[in-house]
Each structure stands twice: as C-alpha cells, then as structure tokens.
Amino acid sequence: MITTNIAQAKEALMQNDVVAIPTETVYGLAGNAFSETAVKKIFALKKRPFYNPLIVHIGSAEQLQEIALDIPPMAMQLAKAFWPGPLTLLLKKQSSIPDLVTAGSTMVAVRMPNHPLTLQLLQALPFPLVAPSANPFTSISPTNALHVYQYFKEEVPVILDGGACSKGVESTIVGFDEKGPVLYRLGALALEDIEAVTHMPLRIMNNAQHNRPDAPGMLGRHYAPRTVTYLTDNVEELLQQFQGKKIGLLLWKAKINPNNHYSIYYLSANQNMEEATSNLYALLHDLDKQELDVIIAERLPNEGLGRTINDRLQRATRQAE
Ligand code: TXA
Ligand code: MG
C-alpha cells in the first residue's frame, strides 16, 4: 500500500519486511541492514544477483561508527560537506554488517539520504537500512511512489510516499585508496563539487566491461528502458535513419519540427542541468510506456551533471553492451 505514515513503515521494517522509501535521489527498497532475512527479501524482489552489493543508509553521523572502520580523514571531510545528501562513501566495514550486504567485500557503501520522511524513519529505527534502487535489476530507477507500485504492485507491502525525488538520479559513489579518492559511480553530486572539497582530482574506476564489476551501477547495460534507445550528438541524422518510425525524442537543445510520428520532450526548457537530471528517469518511464519504435536521446555537454546524464543515457542504449 502507498502511505505517508512513518509508523506503518517502521512496523514493517521491525518485522524484517521490505519497505519502499523516498530519498532525494531515487526510491529505495529498504530493509534492516543487520538482518539476513530482510536483505534476502530485497535481493529476491529485485531479482538482483548476490554479487551486487547494497548501500547502507544511516540517519545520523554517529551511526557511521557502527558500520565502518578506519575512516579516512578525506571521507569525513566529504561526509561533513555533503551529508545528508547524494554522496555514497565506500569504507572498510564493521563485522556487524552481514557479508550478504557487501557481496563478501570488506568494504561497505554508506550514505545519509536527504529526505525528511526517510531521515525521520531512520532516526526512529534501532538499525540502519540497506536500500538498493526500487526497480527490478537493470531497469529504470523509480523517482516517485507510483513508479515503485507499477514495478512491484502488492509484493512490496508498504511504499512510503515522499513525493517526487528532488535529484532524480542515484548518488555519486566515492572510495579511497592509497593514492586518494576514486569515483565508482557518477551520480547526483557533480564531480566538480566533490573536487572542490578534496582539492584533488578523483580517479575514475572504469570497469564497465566486467561481468562482475566492483560497482555494478557501472555495468554496461543498466537503467534501461524496454524501447531501443540511441544516444547521439546529431539528432537529425538518426531521424533520417528512422524515417517513418514512431520516435521518442529526449532533447537537450536540438530544434526539431514537430510531426505526428514524434513524441518530443526536452529535459529542461532552459537547459538547466539540475532540472534535466530530476526529469531524466520520469521522462524515460513516460517514453517507455508509449509503444514507440525507438527513443533518440541527445547527448549533453560533458560537464557537471551533464556527465551523469550522459552516463545513464549511454547505459540505456544497446550499443553499451
Ligand atoms: O541514490 C542511491 O544511491 C540509491 C538510493 C536508494 O539511496 N541507491 C542505489 O542503490 O542506487 P543500488 O543498489 O541501485 O546501487 C548501489 C551501487 C551498486 O552499483 C553497487 O554495486 C554499489 O553501489 N555498491 C554497494 N556496495 C558496494 C561495495 N561494498 N563495494 C562496491 N560497490 C558497492
Ligand atoms: Mg540501482
């Protein structure tokens, strides 16, 4: 059921049931991070392979000590600067975290989400929550409660409705090695903003080609609509190629003459990258429902959140495989 009642969500979580929770990035499928029963239910619902680890969500800075060890000073600096917010840190895990959560890794991913309902819920619970995005494995992440319901119906007993997600794409994931900070997944926090705090560039972990990558958010095909999708700098050229087909257009700034075969959407009318990011998945969900032959997406400038949007659109295409 879809509800705004935190007590109901809490009750289900206390029984090691799964609850969909709103965050500022995307909706998550949440469960007790310390309970293997709850964690297994999440994997089963998502049809997610066990090699793909989960992010632990906390409601206060103190909770971090229960979860992680030997936290690098730079991680603390980033947490101070961006939590609650769309930044996930990869840290050495405490033994309290079941191996199932981290897929056997000694590292655990942690973040403090910035959503009033979910922060209240986390603060009312005696345990942190694991929460992958609330979508079946590899499909588009949900950015409102209805998206979650459409995917899982009554299989998820409680969907906590916190409205549309303000950021609209997943958190940025950052880890650390002896040489400094490493980017594991582009996300809702721009690299430039992180580097303004680290004062050093993030090295990019690019393992998109692996079948068992360190961060499966980097898997080749992910975040994908069912409709065949293309990403291009030259929209006109692809329109020529698909003449006569029913085409969905997801545009940044290209000017296209409307016609009966086209379903045209702009990510942001005045090319605001934050707005574009928050609209991205909802528009992909919409386009995917329209029984189109093909979706053509226009590439954004490769800077700030444009980089994140291009990354997700690239993974939505078939060429990425
Ligand atoms: O914004 C978000 O991060 C959302 C909301 C719900 O918080 N969650 C999310 O979770 O995107 P998920 O499971 O869809 O993506 C988590 C990513 C995966 O690619 C996973 O492999 C990576 O984080 N990850 C989690 N734990 C990890 C670990 N121990 N080592 C390496 N990567 C890890
Ligand atoms: Mg996901």
Automatic annotation (TrEMBL):
Its EC number is 2.7.7.87. This is Threonylcarbamoyl-AMP synthase. PANTHER family: SUA5 (PTHR17490), THREONYLCARBAMOYL-AMP SYNTHASE (PTHR17490:SF16). NCBIfam families: L-threonylcarbamoyladenylate synthase. It comes from Hydrotalea sandarakina. Required for the formation of a threonylcarbamoyl group on adenosine at position 37 (t(6)A37) in tRNAs that read codons beginning with adenine. One of its GO terms (biological process) is regulation of translational fidelity. It catalyses: L-threonine + hydrogencarbonate + ATP = L-threonylcarbamoyladenylate + diphosphate + H2O. It is an enzyme of class 2 (transferase). GO terms for cellular component: cytoplasm. One of its GO terms (molecular function) is L-threonylcarbamoyladenylate synthase. Belongs to the SUA5 family. Its main location: cytoplasm. Residues 3-189 form the YrdC-like domain. L-threonine binds at residues 25, 57, 111, 131, 171.
